[in-house]
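Notebook entry, structure prediction.
Reason for the run: the old model in the group folder had no record of what sequence produced it. Starting over properly, with the input documented here first.
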Amino acid sequence: MSRWLVTGAGGMLGQDLLARLATAGESAAGLDRTALDITDPGAVRTALETHTPDVVVNCAAWTAVDDAEAKEAEALAVNGTGPRVLAEACEVSGAVLIQVSTDYVFAGDARMPYGEDDRTAPRSAYGRTKLAGERAVLDTLPETGFVVRTAWLYGAGGGNFVRTMIKLEGIKDTLDVVDDQLGQPTWTGDLADRLVLLGLAALAGTAPAGVYHGTSGGETTWFGFTREIFRLLGADPERVRPTTSEAFVRPAPRPAYSVLGHERWKAAGIEPIRDWRTALAEAFPALVRAERG
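New structure, fully documented this time:
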């Protein structure tokens, strides 16, 4: 049995990761942002000395994408400085570090899935700060640092697109949803499973350090995603109407193309995440319960 420390444990990914670690029989401690400020070197050193983890998974992040445009320094402290502080502490302790990152590190203008080693070119403050965190981990821990990029996350343990659409289905006759952004809806439960497998493979020496892409198989738009949510609710998918990104202008630009490739998992002997529709169907009852009670 190995020892794990999960930072940002209060978020929906952190919650699912702790649950998966418990099921796997691993010893895990979870610290939310009130229990651990990952930008504080002294606090991080104390946490690692107290819990003596073999694997640290950093789920802590500034995820308010639009707010980061006006508060990039604050976002960089959490998304860039925090991972560097964790990496430096793991370098001393010998722990493996898995840093959760994002598709926003890419420009979002590709025509085929982004590979793990493709050129990064973030177009938003959020993407720039997350890329800084990636580089800090990989530069500090070239042999024991892992970055897992994900996108379009949903889960029962927090607010997200799926829960919002479940709520809106009950109060709106029709919904206009963007149909010109392509990505991979990803259940936090599936991502948590891969993080556990990756950490165990890292400890066993069978997973090469570096970048992995933790998104579901397949691809769809937000419009297609919403129609599938309506179908699972037993609602008429025709109530969901397509629109363009121009109808929902936001401070931070959204990637038009967020589809990620999954080749690196083969090197670790781990299967990539399954198709997004299959995962959504399995996750859906818990999502409905979480939203509707």
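Summary: The chain is about 45% helix and 15% strand.
The old model has been moved to the deprecated folder.
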